[in-house]
């Protein structure tokens, strides 16, 4: 083995979502005296471009399918060519397409679960199939990392989690820190005046993140309330979101933006951050907004409940309830003191328990442990 441990960080896509932000932060804070990161993404995108700009060796093997046997040989060749010592797979798709090759080469494996691939929203048969898939993948990992206690407990309900542990997501506190003098040009460029309140949704436009419930809630707010909604992101619901804005008559109240990399500047421009997800691991978007000192309205699900105490450092609401969400938003929008109080407590929560440095040191401890020679489990698909 070389002096440095060469680690392949693999993730499903090059578009930047929560898991991809996690990988970016992990690599940025990794001790490069001990560890040499290489990245494999299964689609191109901004994450790939950013990593290459940083000088990180980054590869793309194109597939959008889990268990795509067509790419497994390419993955094995990559592992050999890059002299990889350890595989760290982020998410189901990435692990399902790298597990076979890593096991053939007797490499230690870490599987980080950024939210399980099964959830209550799925038909029973689909949910059961996904659980069996996850059970298989967990069985092949030397260590499974859950980013929230909720995900860990969910895993225990359907598979052996004896080799699993919880390492909560962490935030780059220097990048996500409230600005003393916010840049007024950000709001001006969005067409938002100084007397207008701005609610932000910075997430993928997917069923999981549920932007449609946010739009329905926006339509329920009083017409005289000086508020606009900024939705930033892309996904399979792009066309549906645009159509619903038109159907609800929200053209003057909603601003739609494609993915943007200036997330801290956008968060700084907000008065309230909202994430009405149906399921999560531990949502980085919520952590980032809280780190910026923003009051958050989010759904009472999974890892979100581990970071937000409603009424203390944010507000939690029931998923898929537009009126309940509208009421919570209204409560914040009409009270500047409440927004300020929740925002201050939100920042304290992140500083005290969700820094990226702490997260990375815990992950590095796993790397050091697994880099030592250990018996290899038999591979069985």
Automatic annotation (TrEMBL):
Organism: Hymenobacter rigui
Protein name: Glycosyltransferase family 1 protein
GO MF annotation terms: glycosyltransferase activity
Glycosyl transferase family domain segment(s): 187-348
SUPFAM superfamilies given in the database record: UDP-Glycosyltransferase/glycogen phosphorylase
This protein's record includes keyword Glycosyltransferase: yes
Keywords linked to the UniProt accession: Glycosyltransferase, Transferase
Coiled coil: none
Domain Glycosyltransferase subfamily 4-like N-terminal as annotated: residue spans: 16-175
